[in-house]
Amino acid sequence: MDILGVSIWQIIIVVPLIISAFTIVFLPAIVIICSKKSYGSSKLAWVLVAFTFSWIGYIAYYFMVARKATDNKLKGYPND
Length: 80
Description:
It is built from three helices and two strands; from the N terminus they run ββααα. With 80 residues, it is mainly alpha-helical. It has one domain.
């Protein structure tokens, strides 16, 4: 059975691939945008890094910004 020249099996295969690609590309950027641990131009730079390098950029953000903010909070340092 074809719908507009596309078989149901092509749809079953392509839709999860599109959802996976969307998640891999946009989820790190969404996490950074929603984060309160970085702000301003720093946040914009991290979003650009996340889009450019996807998960590698997000991992770098976590270890350089998010984790540092959590460690500072645990040590009692004020937020900058």
